């Protein structure tokens, strides 16, 4: 049995996965807001999970929105800011007596889908989360490829390839300090921005998609523009990695038209005349993150 944790800003979830990928136990609790209580809570949850699973589990995986700095071994970029600057792996190992594996939550999503989800037959699998923002994780041979600097798969803050004002509208500043990061375009937030620029109206991404599906012209234009932007972004990725499968997660992954439109939108930007492109919807949806965290300990 494997134990996995999904750490969010407000909720912490634990699960026990058996080796065939079946969830044996799942439990959710508010995320403690100080470091010491957090470590103690995770250690308690491990004890609870083992009790519920009825056996001892040595391997514990933790998925969180952040990363372990390869330079220092300390947590960085976590949105649970109290984790930043701490040696979480060592502290949790000490508190629980377990072997602790930590990875970014986007990598956990991609790992779950690569091990036994939508990308399970692929050697190279890219998991793209197209939600509020735009995250990504790269899996090679069913292992997370974190990279030398722990930024493997982080494509959300690349500049949008082939940006022109004519095609993509006015420059979009990003909170990271740069302009025209891809997540400013190919995300739910990006689609909402495109719609606001064209109509001066604020509408949620899912409502824009619903309008597009009903034949609304402006919503259709925004969707088409986003699909072309996605085509450019995915082509840049495919020209380097040529993955077997690209698995989509996040809110936009529920837009069925994307699986029809993305291969065609990507093709013109690829350095090949023929290509077999495989875009798939995540099989485990919101559960991918926690499942992938558990798979870290395989
Ligand atoms: Zn950015």
UniProtKB/TrEMBL annotation:
Protein origin, superkingdom: Bacteria
Record flagged with keyword Nucleotide-binding: no
Pfam families referenced in this protein's UniProt entry, alphabetically: ROK
Gene Ontology MF, one: fructokinase activity
Enzyme class: transferase
Gene3D superfamilies in the record: 3.30.420.40
Coiled-coil region list: none
Claim: Transferase is one of the keywords in the record: yes
SUPFAM superfamilies referenced in this protein's UniProt entry, alphabetically: Actin-like ATPase domain
Keywords assigned by UniProt, alphabetized: Carbohydrate metabolism, Kinase, Transferase
Protein EC: 2.7.1.4
Protein name, UniProt field: Fructokinase
Originating organism: Vibrio aerogenes CECT 7868
Taxonomic classification: Bacteria, Pseudomonadati, Pseudomonadota, Gammaproteobacteria, Vibrionales
């Amino acid at each position: 049995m494997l134990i996995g944790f999904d750490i969010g800003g407000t909720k912490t979830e634990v699960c026990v996965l058996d080796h065939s990928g079946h969830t044996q136990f799942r439990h959710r609790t508010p995320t403690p807001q100080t470091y010491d209580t957090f470590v103690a809570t995770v250690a308690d949850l491990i004890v609870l999970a083992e009790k519920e699973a009825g056996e001892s589990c040595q391997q514990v995986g933790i998925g969180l929105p952040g990363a372990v700095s390869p330079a220092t071994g300390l947590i960085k970029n976590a949105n649970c800011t109290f984790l930043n600057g701490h040696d979480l792996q060592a502290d949790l190992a000490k508190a629980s007596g377990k072997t602790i594996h930590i990875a970014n939550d986007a990598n956990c999503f991609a790992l779950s889908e690569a091990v036994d989800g939508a990308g399970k037959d692929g050697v190279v699998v890219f998991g793209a989360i197209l939600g509020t923002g735009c995250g990504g994780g790269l899996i090679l041979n069913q292992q997370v490829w974190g990279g030398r600097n722990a930024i493997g798969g982080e494509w959300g803050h690349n500049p949008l390839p082939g940006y022109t004002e004519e095609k993509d509208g006015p420059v979009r500043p990003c909170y990271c300090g740069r302009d025209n990061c891809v997540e400013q375009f190919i995300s739910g937030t990006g689609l909402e921005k495109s719609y606001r620029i064209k109509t001066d109206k604020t509408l949620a991404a899912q409502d824009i998609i619903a309008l597009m599906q009903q034949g609304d012209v402006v919503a259709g234009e925004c969707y088409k523009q986003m699909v072309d932007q996605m085509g450019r972004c995915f082509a840049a990725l495919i020209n380097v990695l040529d993955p077997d499968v690209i698995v989509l997660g996040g809110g936009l992954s529920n837009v069925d038209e994307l699986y029809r439109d993305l291969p065609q939108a990507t093709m013109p930007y690829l350095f090949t005349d023929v290509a077999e492109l495989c875009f798939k919807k995540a099989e485990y949806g919101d559960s991918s993150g926690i499942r992938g965290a558990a798979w870290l300990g395989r």
